[in-house]
Each structure stands twice: as C-alpha cells, then as structure tokens.
Amino acid sequence: MNDLDTLYNTITSCIVEISQNIRKFNPISLGATIGSENSSGEQVKELDLYCNNLLIEKLSKLSSVKYIASEEEEELIPINEDGKYLVSFDPLDGSSNIDSNILVGTIFCVFEYVNDEQLKDGSNIVMSGYSLYGGSTQLIVCKEKNTSMYNLNPENNTWNRIYDNYKMKDKGNIYSINESNKYDYNININTFTDLLIDKGYSARWVGSLVADFHRTLLKSGVVMYPANDKNIEGKIRLVYEAYPLAYIIENSNGISFDGKDRMLSIPFPQNNIHKRIPIFYGSKYEMNELMNTINWNLFY
Question: Is-above-0.70 flag for pTM?
Fold first, then answer.
C-alpha cells in the first residue's frame, strides 16, 4: 500500500467514527458551544472539537505527513519534517446546523511537496474529498483526477462505490446563494440570479457548504458565496474548503472561480493559512452565463 492509500484509509476511518458518533448522540448536545472561538473567529461546537482532535490524532501517526492544517487550529501543525504531504481539513463543515439535524460533513485536501519546495497552488493537490453525514453517510473522493462516490454500509462499516469517474452535466436548473445578503452583493450578482429566475431556475439553499456543493455536483447548476459588504474578502477558507472542492468539480466536468481567477491557480497562502475568498462553482453553461453577465473573462 502506498502512502496516499494509507492517508486515504486513515481519513476514511475517521469519517466512519464521526458518522457513528453523530448517529449515536443527541444532536442538540453535540451542537452546544463550548465557550471558545476557532482560528476563524467562529464559535466552537462540542462535535467540532471531537472531529478535529480525532483527525489530528490519527494523521499524526503517519510518517508521510509533513504538516496538518485545520480550520480549528491557529497555525500549521508540524508532524514529520521528512514527510511529503500537507493535509488540510474542515473537520465539520456546517456545524452550526448540527443541533437542527441538518446535513453536515468533513472536507479534506492532500497537498504534495515536490522536491521539498514550498506549495505553489492547487496544482500541488493529489487528493481531496468530503463526507456527508445525512440519511446515509457518503464519501466523495477525487484521487488521480478521478471522482468517485461511496455509501457507507453501517452494518460492517464498509464503503460501497456508487459512482466512478463521475462527470456532471453541462447544464442544470438550480442555483444556490444566500438571498438574505442580496442587498450586500455587487449588483451584477443580482443581475445574474434574476437572469436564472427568468430562465426558470429554482433556488435551493441549505447553508451547509458540503450540502449545497454536493447537490450542485449531482444536479449541475451553480453554487455561489460572493464577497459582500460584511465579508469583503469572501467567507470561504481557501485551504480547507475552496481548494479541495475546486479540485473535485474541475475533475468532474465543472468549473471553479473566485471572481478573478480559476481557483486552483490561486497561490497557496504561505503567510495566511486561513485566507478567505469568494467562491463560484458550477456546470459549464451556468458558469459561462455568470462570467458573461458580470463581464469577467472566461478562462475555459
């Protein structure tokens, strides 16, 4: 078994354990805050802390891991100076929804150091994925540019593959955006959503990134977290959320964009591991319409 397979097995074993605990315990107690904030200034939930500690504990035992980067930790965690991977993760995306029993998940990304040089950008990604803890526990992994989807069999904790080499359709009929920020967005964003409404699109918004992204991946369409007056730099963390999801959608026939650049071409933030950006993910038709409406240059 190679190092990347060992990493994959370690992360998926953590996902199984997290899934078991979510199903076992009271979601209201799991969603309780513990009176502290994480490195991103958000209230830490009991389950956030559990998931974070579990992933750090398991990954720290692997000699191939050079650094760990977590949304919950202030700085990079050094593991083994001779390791070749940086593993980043959002241990529980959408955790503000856990007490309402709404879909949450774990997002992860594996970057490889080439010739021990600094990470450049998304081109250093060798694997990324996310889990969904819902009616069933699902795992979506992009490895060697092949996107696969799995369902967890809770009887024996094995993964059953339901898709391999998944490719999304070129066009959908759903858009996802937080309409409550409508008057804080650039007016061109609203011009675009009005265009979609005129074309008969439906709006769907869970407010859990993994949930809204996963629906877009399966049904096509577009999911957007634009910058706004409250989040001038954007809301989504590049290293823990934006990069890994961009790697998945770009290898699944879709497009990622931050409003200026292809997301995987954004330089790795060496001095700000918690850098935030706006995000736009979608199928080709909607992303072309988005870029044409807002007068951004199309790069595909």
Answer: yes
